[in-house]
Hints:
Blueprint: E1 4-11, H1 14-24, E2 29-37, E3 55-62, H2 70-86, E4 94-96, E5 100-103, E6 106-118, E7 121-130, H3 146-150, H4 156-176
Parallel strand pairs: 1-2
Antiparallel strand pairs: 2-3, 3-7, 4-5, 5-6, 6-7
Amino acid sequence: MKFKKFIFKKVNSTNLTAINILKKTKLNYGMIVADLQSKGKGQYGRKWISIKGNLFVSFFYNLDKIDLSLKKLTKLNSNLVKKTISNFYKKKILFKEPNDLLINGKKICGILQETIYKKENKFLVIGIGINILKNPVILDYPTTNLCEITGKNIKKNDVEKLLKFNFEKKFYNYFRNK
Length: 178
């Protein structure tokens, strides 16, 4: 399975862009990538702080043929992101419910899932923000980034390509075994 990729310089939010594309097309699977978000969304209506050089991506897919609960999909999606990050950082990465990945107690990634209905079809939109180059300073919530913790110059495109590959491979295998 291949996710059709849409690339933008700047969007309000990759999730909102995914929802708009989803509603205007007949696609069942897609991926939105942006260099910047002006109104990135976090959990519980919070703002996601978007810093240029970090990865902002949303995937969407049709849930009609997927017989997993949203809780299991949350775990699956976070594991795919965790697997991607672990390719660059070999030490422990923790999942903190409901939607964060932490390294050494510091947030490296946020994941926001939203269910959307289009006619009789149900879709899941997964927004992912990974701190690659810089991390925001958030009062009472420590953050980090991949370049800082690895001491390496990690390219955003390398992380993006691997993330896309991991999502495509997982869903290809899932549907192949159906």
